[in-house]
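Before anything else, study the sequence and fold tokens given here and see whether the fold suits the sequence. Record follows:
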Amino acid sequence: MELTANTPQQLRHTNMNAILGVMRRSGAVNGTDLIAATGLARATVIAVCDDLIAAGWVRELPAARVAVQKGRPARVFEFDARAGVVVGLDFGVAKTTAVVADLRGTILAKTTQILPAFTAPDSERLASIDSAVRRALADAGAAPESVLVAGIGIAAPIDRSGAIPRGQDFWEHLDIGVPEHLRKNYGWPVLLGNDANLAAMAEHWMGVGAHVPDLAVMLAGERIGFGLLESGRLLHGAFGRSGEVGLLELVDGVGTPAGIAALAREMAAEACRPGAPKTLLSAPGAPVAQGAGSAGASAAGPSAEDVFAAAAAGDAVARRILEDIARRMARVIAVVSTLMDPELVVIGGAVAQSAAVLLDPLETELARFMPNPPRVAVSTLGDAIVTLGAVRLALDYVERHALDLLQRS
């Protein structure tokens, strides 16, 4: 029989959720604090706290007696952020990153694993993901059994059933059954999310877009994609394609969904052709970033970091490349902004730190296209932005289903 709001069991669950929610947002609290925050009677508060202690979500701290206090000292309670952990995964083309976080979102460990090529068997790619997850758990000192839920970010739309739509080869290359693999091997609830949407969740949680209700986050490394929040609510769409901006070839002056890193490499390669103007990008021994960490660096030409480094060193060709990229990004942002009117647009992903140099020309160009354009900023979350969003996705699930997870564990 379905429970009603007046059944003792439903009331108990409601009270437990209310008190657990207060404790998650607070430090140490006593019964008086919880009464003030929830409006519940003292006897109810104490009984619920005892239930939560028994279930492992809450711990009781030593009570400190105040000098003028009479009678028994007040009991002091605290949410136990290590009652379990969550896993966040960023599953990309060339690598996967796994993080383990406690139940307040503090990152306990992070590992990155290079993935086999798309042409490799799915079993090899899944084994690499397994390796990243297990290393992260070991580094965090957490057993697989302590994981309450895992969140995964992927560079593809996710429909309302949690599936990747068909129709694009790139999306289908990523559809190798990662959620099913983790559920089968570990028994965890697993949630799949679009990478740009998770980036928006991360920014709204702890980035420069924290608490901004109307927010657009643009992942613009290899391909442009947006995560969009309107009045604090993530926009999804019928098939999970909100923010995909997949037809940029129709936008004059843009012509391609390629992101900042991809454009920088492409334009730098063109600038290094025989007979082109002299540039640091092609000079032997140039002071550019050819280290192993350069995104997209290859024997074929300069990396995106090389372009940013050459521009910082005063190279005119590199500066023109970045100005051209800024103009293109301004057009993309203008198109999206006319549709959803964000207060703030955040450029996120691995190129974000370098992209700060694009802000002035981008904002100048943006002001030409529309009155009252949105503010534009670069993310401070770096290449962790998607994994942090995956952690937030997992934590939201824990908060909604805390008592069910207690029963599971």
The longest strand covers residues 107-114.
